Amino acid sequence: MSVENVLKTIKDNAIEWVDFRFVDLSGRAHHISLPAKEVDEETFVNGVAFDGSSIPGFRGIEESDMVMMPDPDAAYVDPFTAHPTLNIMCNIYTPDGERYERDPRSIAAKAEEFLQASGVGTTAFFAPESEFFIFDDVRYESTMNSSSFYVDSEEAAWNTNRKEEGGNLGFKVGVKGGYVPVAPVDTQQDIRSEMCRLLEEVGLRVERHHHEVATAGQAEINFRFDTLKKTADNLLVYKYIVHNTARQYGKVATFMPKPLFGDNGSGMHVHQSIFNGDTPLFYEKGAYANLSEMALHYIGGILYHAPALLALTNPSTNSFKRLVPGYEAPVNLVFSKGNRSAAIRIPVAAVTPKGCRIEFRTPDSTANPYLAFSAMLMAGLDGIKRKINPVELGYGPMDKNIYELSDDQKAQIRSVPGTLDEALDALKADYEFLLEGDVFTKEFIDNFIELKRGEAKAVAIRIHPHEYGLYFDC
């Protein structure tokens, strides 16, 4: 959409407010709203000022002035506001007009530029499967003398004997029993359909929705793949619509990877491929899973750099509560066709040459998508550049259920880091591939590690309720 078309949209839709948005290092959106009558062509030239010192990991108070530069290609009419509002995603610049090196969206743009300059291909396509839970109640606290959380759902397995419903109607979802049941077991068909309606209303192409494996309202909606930066934009829109639609239904949605103990967590499986113009580069008919040599090297790059990648694709302490064996969690650094216990799965059902792709199953939605997608692309391109062969390195293919292997066989398979601190250690030791083409900078990586170390420490020093059960009677 051109600036002219954005201004026309404002006029045609009687827009009263224009909401300028940017994303922080953790992937959370922030916004400032201007009266629509104050927005003109100059706004897209001069941008909108904001205080960068108030955003964690951005700027010190002595250099706080920053500028949002609106991207007219990332605008849509907000479906929730009472006053007609147009939302526009922005890039971040310094006051002297330089692209801000810590702006995640600018990093995504640089990753796309690096791909084109590399000569490997022209476009990388991404498609995330971002799972989430819909709860009816959520409460938590962490104080000096108390620590607890509580979530509830009308369809949860623990509510088969709940009396507060005024007559329990049964049909609860069992633990690990939630994969695609019909109503009345699936109570959330309409809310997911409304989410999809709104997603299509703002321009996303929805492919399907369904209930996911876990009890208590786990869900998944898939939207159409797109280019790296555009898909990251779409994922922020997706989360915004999921969160606010749930709110309208008197419920709450969360993309937290592991909100429940003892059942499956929520991942963000990321499908990806590279094209040269209209030509897919990951397809070779008759090869293993119809994968080209380039695709194998791309896989090799991701699996080789995976411990470091996880600091960006799984950047929360809660991420590693999901990455444990036994819950369909992709903790094994191998690739396979159709095997969901591998970190990288190659979809083979009903796949065309243009649909040939890899699926990195380890990431989750605490990731900032601009950073995570960029890092995955850089790892894959490094694999192509260095011709990293995943077979020669023992990364597969593994077409067996890994969880059913013997202990000796499992010991031969590399696993993901066990904690956020371990992933950050891996990133500190292996980051050079991210610096190619100045996509990431050493300063950015150091700052990111410091920010996430603070989160890990904040969790580590706090007393866990389960410790009372283990140690209170010592």
Automatic annotation (TrEMBL):
Source domain of life is Bacteria
User: Known Pfam families for this protein?
Assistant: Gln-synt_C, Gln-synt_N
Q: Which residues bind Mg(2+)?
A: E129, E131, E212, E220, H269, E359
Species: Paenibacillus dendrobii
- Where does this protein hold ATP? E207, F223, R224, F225, H271, Q272, S273, R340, K354
Q: How does it assemble?
A: Oligomer of 12 subunits arranged in the form of two hexagons.
What GO terms describe the biological role, i.e. biological process, of this protein? glutamine biosynthetic process; nitrogen utilization
Where this protein primarily resides, as one coarse class? cytoplasm
Name of the molecule in the record: Glutamine synthetase
PANTHER family given for it?
GLUTAMINE SYNTHETASE (PTHR43407), LENGSIN (PTHR43407:SF1)
EC number annotated for this UniProt entry? 6.3.1.2
Alphabetically, the GO molecular function entries are:
ATP binding; glutamine synthetase activity; metal ion binding
Q: Where in the cell is it found?
A: Cytoplasm
What does the record give as the organism's lineage?
Answer: Bacteria, Bacillati, Bacillota, Bacilli, Bacillales
